[in-house]
Amino acid sequence: MNLKTNKKGDQTFNTLTFMFFKVGFLIIVLFFLVYLYKSYVVTKIDVTDLEAQIFTHSILNNKDGIIYYDEEIDRSYPEIIDLSKFNDKTMEQIESNSIFYGKDNRHLAAKLELIDESGQIINKIVYNNKWYERWHTLAKTKVKGPGGSKEIVSSFYVLIKNKETIEKGFLNISITIPNN
Amino acid sequence: MKNPNRIFKNKRGVEQEVYFVIIESVLVLVVIIAMLQWVSSIAKDEDFEKLILSRDIALTMNTLQNIPGDIYYNYSATNIELQKFNYKFKDNLISILDPGKPLKISYPFSRNLLISSNIPITIEKKDSIEFEINNNILTIK
After folding, report:
1. pLDDT tens, position by position, A42-97
2. In this complex, is the C-beta atom of A14 within 8 Å of any C-beta atom belonging to chain B?
3. Phi, psi for residue A141 in degrees, rounded to 5
4. Which of A110, A115, B4, B78 could form a disulfide with A175 if both were Cys (CB 3.0 to 4.6 A apart)?
5. Distance in Å from the first CA to the final CA of chain A
6. Closest Cα in chain B to A44
7. CA of B43 to nearest chain A CA: how many angstroms apart?
8. Cis ω on the peptide bond leading into residue B120 (within 30° of 0)?
9. What 3 state SS string does A10-29 have?
10. pLDDT tens digits for A145-158?
11. What is the per-residue pLDDT across A101-149, written as a single tens digit (0 to 9) for each?
12. What domain range includes position B14?
């Protein structure tokens, strides 16, 4: 077999090689333009983390919620959880009064877990029970964009007031927000 | 019929290659102009400003309503002209309206129903929005 190419063959080969590099270069330029676009042109803003923080602090500062509130001196204690108020009834009141997102809340859901010092769950309550499990499951899929959801988990060191005794514990808050 | 492989191999082939380069250059120019136009349209677009304002005002509402005690807050923005838009507070939604355009951008906020308020209300073309909570009454003006 004669592998030696003639002059015409050489020319065609050179042109094709040149074209190959040219296309490669164009692809690199295209990716660079996309990178520039992604870096400098912002068309979406994500406020879910901030929204979750505001929700958390609303729960932790709400005198009508789960924290200990001394009626006599009209003072609330944001980091002391009143065990007698840490129940579904209080959460329903929060949902329908102090943090009310409409009758069908399709914006935010949360789960609060009160844990004692040994790590045992004392009780858990859910804000917007109807949607929490759905969005929690969706968040696990890590789907981005509409149809997915985001879960923000935070843990706080708290004091748990059980009648006259106060014990150390933790409050885990898991907030799910559907993607826009 | 001419052999297509011959276009690069004779004088006519060289001419055709020049045409290809010209066409390619024109295409590149068209793409660059289209991209510049697109970026310019994004820069002029007010929807992004509406998007920011809707979220920012909704989060402000969420924060203010859960503060223990009374508060007065004057909301203004440094990079956005607030007076360009109207602000409609209704139920659990803040909508940013542009009087000349039908499209509005909304975002939900939470309500503290233990506080009475003057919602629904539309704030028209003001350079700042005032929020006041006094004796469990929220006033937006």
Report:
1. 778 889 999 999 999 999 988 889 999 998 998 889 889 999 999 999 999 999 99
2. no
3. -75, -15
4. A110
5. 64
6. B48
7. 9
8. yes
9. HHHHHHHHHHHHHHHHHHHH
10. 888 999 999 999 99
11. 998 899 999 999 999 999 999 999 999 999 999 999 999 998 888 889 9
12. 4-44
